[in-house]
Amino acid sequence: MTATPRMENLKPNDFASDQEVRWCPGCGDYAILKAVQRTLSEEGAQRENTVFVSGIGCSSRLPYYMSTYGFHTIHGRAPAFATGIKLTNPALDVWVITGDGDGLSIGGNHLMHVLRRNVDLQILLFNNETYGLTKGQYSPTSRPGTRSPSSPSGSLDSPFLPCVLALGAGANFVARGVDTAVKDLSATFKRARSFSGTAFIEIFQNCLVYNDKVFSNFTDREVTSELQVVTMHGLPLIFGTEKNKGLRFDPVRVELEVVTLGENGITEEDVLVHDETNRTLAALLAAMQPPNHPMAIGILYSNSVATYESQVYSQIAAARNGGANLDDVIRRGHTWRVNG
Amino acid sequence: MEGSLRSSDKTPKNERETRDSVIIRFAGDSGDGMQLTGSQFALSSAIVGNDLATFPDFPAEIRAPAGTTFGVSAFQIHFSAQHILTPGDEPEVLVAMNPAALKVHLTDLDPGGMIVIDRDSFSEKNLRKAGYHTNPIEDQSLEGYRVLALDMSRLTQAAVKPFGLSQKDSLRCKNMWALGLMMWMYDRNREPTINWLQQKFANRSEIAGANIAALNAGHAFGETAELPDLGQGYAVPRAEIAPGEYRAVTGSEALAWGLAAGAHLADLKLVFASYPITPASNLLHILAGLKAQGIVTFQAEDEIAAACAAIGASYAGSIGVTSSAGPGVALKTEAIGLAVVAELPLIVINSQRSGPSTGMPTKAEQSDLFQAVHGRNADTPLVVLAAHSPANCFAMAIEAIRLGTKYMTPVILLTDGYLANASEPWLIPNIENLETFPVKFHTEPNGFHPFMRNEETLARAWAVPGTPGLEHRIGGLEKDYSTSNISYDPANHQRMTEVRAKKISGIADELALQEISFGPSEGSLAVVGWGSTFGAIEEAVHAVDEEGLKVAHIHIDYLNPMPKNMASLLSGYKSILVPEMNSGQLVKLLRSAYLVPAEGLNKVTGQPFKVKEISSAIRAKLGNKK
Q1: Do A74 and B273 count as a contact with CB atoms less than 8 A apart?
Q2: Strand ranges (E), B278-395
Q3: What digits encode the pLDDT tens for the residues B171-194?
Q4: Which of A55, A158, A328, B514 has a CB 3.0–4.6 Å from the CB of A324, allowing a cystine?
Q5: Domains in chain A: ranges and CATH
Q6: What is the pTM for the complete model shown?
């Protein structure tokens, strides 16, 4: 993954393929594509060592718009293809592009397992709470009561919280971003790319055709400050237009509570400091939902452990050391000679 | 097979009577160690120089309740002074360790055959569990058989007493006692088994010692007990076998080593992605033990992930292999379709088992041929191969990798539960002397697009991530023939569909012509088979040949595409009989492809064909009443 030094990094546009982008005008996917291209440029990535693997859905068209290697596979299975790619060539920088339907419904199993194995990948889950490409059915992240062509009376399923699911599956890097915040997204992508292991990033992505403004309750400019808390490792979890709100641990209810600095004698000392290596804290942050709590955005959890493929190759290297060749293997055990 | 215990001629008492061929079946409880007993007997027979074939038959339950009929595990071995190809039809010796084993297997025993019974295990409780109302040893129901009812449990306990084992552990040695007796009866050397026991129980010397004592006691019992009619036991002389170094090999072993060898010959890394399923799991176990050979194995979360990981591995420049049985292959179907349209090499191994659905997991069937040839959405051609014997799995695995990489196509290799577990002697090849077929990845950026084709093979260029200047995108969407960009153009889809079909059908041009494995090149009847029925069909046509019936045996290893001469070859016979362990699949493929009057001979009991089932069908077909 380490790029050989070049005189000059490729520009974001150098990572764009010659294919016409076919997402709906105004789709949040454009911004995410830009953030990805910008990240690769700033990171000095090389096209030939970068692979985008996707499943099926609007988001999964992204590989066609990149000038890198790309594999548009089948519905929900991208993590499994990506695992095979990394098992062959661990040096490749592999990105999995998926959505809430692809990654959490038909592909939920693969997502869980790739997270617990910790294959060195970046997984970008475009969450728009709908099945866009099949024309707007409710998805596994749709809120209860969502009216859609397949749920005219309102959906009945309780939704997944993708980051809670990822942490539950044993993910070692979990982050959140918003499609319109390209700069922050790019910063998160960089951290994800340098993370050694599976980096899971949920991106709130607006589908303006089938689910417009579904996240506006915490992404609209006027509410962002009050209803988003940006998690920064080592810094207190403070938010609000006046920077006077904070998250405090409530030991009785075992949850995070929103407190106001200066009220009831509360000071910055009472506010939790974000520790991205604390899985319990990450789970509490991931579970927070507006309007009673702010949505936690940024890197919720990051804790490096050995990658799956590095361990696979360590075992192979250990076995190879003094190991037999295949001609020896097939002669192991009882053999006998028939003389002519 | 011809030699029978009944034909006891007047051999002097102090000499072993010579037999041409013998079939023994060891049967007992799942926990009685029948598989080990049988395989040790097989090994000792191989060392004597007999040709042999074995057939393990065990329940799907890991530890079925002791003493029940569904918990019976058996191992049949056919050893001979002649060349043999099957584990044999009816055993002439049945070693039954308990009433349930007798109940299940007596029906198969040759009339007049010998039954060796552990009399001690025929307790009231065990008889009841096996469904006997009276004791068959005492109620004359075994009349006509030669019954050796021995105090096997008690004799074993006495032999192992010095080792101070618990009663339970003492009794677990009785399979070795039975093995010792059979080794005396057929003049086998105990030494390899003793060595094996010493190795297996290296850390538990009392267990090793007890088992060896039981083995020796069984042998000594044969020598001294002066069993009626047995005289000095039997001898089965060595067979004429091509010189060289041999080992016993199961289909699973041959397949695993064939895959490893194939990847080596292709100069590719082998990535084997699989999900546990009976009877395919052994392949995963064996390959997982070959890390020193650089083989990567991946136990995926499910069948689909296994197929997808294997395809991802091939995309990145390994040879990706996935394996399963029918239900698992059904789950992999969509991924295989992607490998067809993305034109990536992928080896899919199907160890077929009885179905539909979960069916009978440990029993063999050949009912996934249609699934392999046609079982995908849309026009999705790929290569289908079948292995026809345990040892042949080695060659077919190499062939699968050769064709898959040369033509950039998925290859389905069909084996079955019988091939996976059965074993036969194998002339060990020298892998370094096998012909290599090193893969050359495409590296030239000039004029490159991913679906540019080799004019001769129609295979697309294999360019792997990491290669500068060849960055490209592939996937399940239809691609333009000339640019490889996504295309919904009607004429282009027609063209791409045709080129995918032509690439596969064109492989027939390089395949060796279909041979006749035995019999005339034209005539009244050809018996056409595929897969594990090879041995039974071959022995059947040999048997009827001795009666003057000139019948051909044609065995098809290349099922899609079939060899070029198939039409002309089949047209040389007035009728065609197709024995299959399914309800008639190859027979329909032959009829539809070649418009020949093929008829099926079908069996779906979960058991392999017996030779006589096929030879009787041949006689019936030819109006010969014998």
Answers
A1: no
A2: 296-299, 319-324, 346-352, 383-386
A3: 999 999 999 999 999 999 999 999
A4: A328
A5: 12-235+275-312 (3.40.50.970), 237-273 (no CATH)
A6: 0.93
